[in-house]
Amino acid sequence: MINTDWGRSLLCYVFVPLFLLLGSTGATADNLSATVDRNQLNRGETVELRVRFDSQTSGEPDFSVLEEDFDILSRRQQNQFSLINGTAVSYTEWLLELVPRETGEILIPELDFKGVNSEAITLQVEDSRPAAKNREPIFVETELDKTTSYVQEQLLLTLRIFTSEPLLGLSSDGLSINNTSILQLAENQYQTRENGVVYQVNEIKYVLFPEASGELVIPQIRLNTAIPDRRDPFSGSLFGNRGKRVLLYSDEQKVTVLPRPANSGDGAWLPAKGLSLTERWSRPPDELVAGEPITRTITLTAQELAATQLPPLHIPDGDGYKTYPDQPQMDNSGDSSGVIGSRVESMAIVPSRAGTITLPPVTVQWWDTVSQQPRQAILEQRTLTVKAAAGQVPDVSETDKTDRTNAAEPIVTPVVAQESNLLIWMLVSVNLVLLIAVAVLFLLWRNSSRQPALNVTPVETEDEPKESTLFAELERQSKSDNPRAFRHALLRWARVYWDKPLLSLQDVADTANGDELAETLDALDRSLYSGATPENVSLPTIFQQLKQLRKNRKGLGKHQKGTPLAPLYGK
Questions:
Q1: For an engineered disulfide with 272, which of 87, 88, 302, 537 has Cβ 3.0 to 4.6 Å away?
Q2: Angle of helix 539-552 relative to helix 515-530, nearest 10 degrees?
Q3: Residue 408 lies in a domain
Q4: CATH number of the domain residue 293 falls in
């Protein structure tokens, strides 16, 4: 007999979680979606409908609801299952090739499957082209999205090559227009039916950006192709000729290009359908630490503008931090309305002190081609808190920074009577100093008579390496090909040499008070944080500058720490 308690435990700890897991998997899989490859087409053209159910199944939705407005030319089903980063992805997909039966606005209705529904899709079907009425075996059509635009505003030019016979290759002489930038956006293929004839359509899209106002003439484009010669049964085959050559010409187009409007502002001229600014950080910006870099990446994206038209983002150094920009990354993508340009700028931000730093706002002026008015894209000003590095004193402002710098160097006030309005205090102070001096001299005399004189040369502790050892390590790193290790060795030596909490190369340059050294150290930081190669700067050069600085200071002592003690008595 099965133990009742053991059975209950098995039910609770094994089967119940399994049932819950299967139930949750089924709940998240019940999703039905529908998409098309394009929403605008002409009468007789095919459109691809893609229906996806996020689970494995052998059935299918009821596609008979489509037959009222569409002819279903083909239909196929495919099942997919994969593991992505340990997560199971499983779905069933149906691909249907449809031809609308009417023109105008046609609706692909909601599809129902296993209690879930897809969203309806609206198609715009235009009337058939007059060029196809002659039933020519091959012809070309030219379409321009507008006949009036501003200078540097996008123009979308579309060429469609219709053929009722297979093409034996296709080439063009290219498109070239004076004072105009040209990008080829996309190339697509699909089928259409005109007056009972099925055509294969090769569609090529260009985006044009006129650089000067006035009349812009888009010339004819010559297309070279060939079709099979009906008189030769082997035309186009390995043993036959290359077919019948055909030359096609697109229509010439004219555009009125307007100058930049007077109310567009004084910034860069950016005529766009939409423009946005976004940012991301290499880690949360509330975790800033003095002396440690953080990377800020700003992306400028514009609809109907190429990446080369987007301006650089000038973000200068600020109070309490320095910026080291990287090379910008530019990219173009596209959709049915034209090009989408993006400019990505990354910069390392290095806080030089603890406290708060304020990053200024980033503003880009642009012209909205939809509403015909100027607009702004803005990243708001940000105030960030910077934590002190381990073992360092926090700082909150430039005033505090001055106080901290002065406090970091021990200052011993010379034992000299200070000015006072009362003579009695002057006399008391002098007498007190003389009494202390006599007591000290008496104690020194008594101790010297009892034991040998001690060597009072200061000895470096084990926790603080000798300055000469650190300088030797700095020299060794200057001969290597590792700028980051050299920077680390330089900061270790500088902290011991000046006995100050130096967090960055900027702190070293400020303490050394040398313009030439400041330039080379700044170039070294830029090479580390931005990835750029510094000009006329090398590690041996920096080391020689530091070596000369160290040599010049030897006359003042090995490496003075703080402010020297004023003597009690002059000679």
A1: 302
A2: 150
A3: no
A4: 2.60.40
The reply to whether the predicted model has a pTM over 0.70 is no
What pLDDT shows up at residue 521?
85
Q: What CA–CA distance (Å, rounded) separates 484 from 471?
A: 16
Q: Is the predicted pLDDT of residue 214 greater than 90, yes or no?
A: yes
Rounded Cα–Cα distance for residues 385 and 358 (Å): 9
The answer to whether 254 and 215 have CB atoms below 8 angstroms apart is: yes
Specify which residues 117 forms β-bridges with: 112
- Asked if 217 and 280 sit in the same domain, the reply is no
458 domain residue, yes or no: no
360 in the same domain as 278: yes
What is the per-residue pLDDT across 324-354, written as a single tens digit (0 to 9) for each?
Answer: 999 999 999 887 789 999 999 999 999 999 9
More confident residue, 104 or 403: 104
At 414 the pLDDT is 39
pLDDT tens string 188-197: 889 988 878 8
Helices (H), ranges, 161-319:
none
Asked whether residue 487 is assigned to any structural domain, the reply reads yes
- Give the structural domain span for 503: 467-556
- In the block, tokens 């309005």 appear at 421
Which 3-state string (H, E, C) describes 437-472?
HHHHHHHHHHHHHHCCCCCCCCCCCCCCCCHHHHHH
Which of residues 109, 126, 143 is at a domain's end?
A: 126
User: Quick one: pLDDT at residue 517?
Assistant: 83
- The last residue of one of the domains, among 339, 366, 387, is 387
* Amino acid letter, residue 268: A
Give pLDDT tens digits for 159-174. Answer: 999 998 888 888 887 8
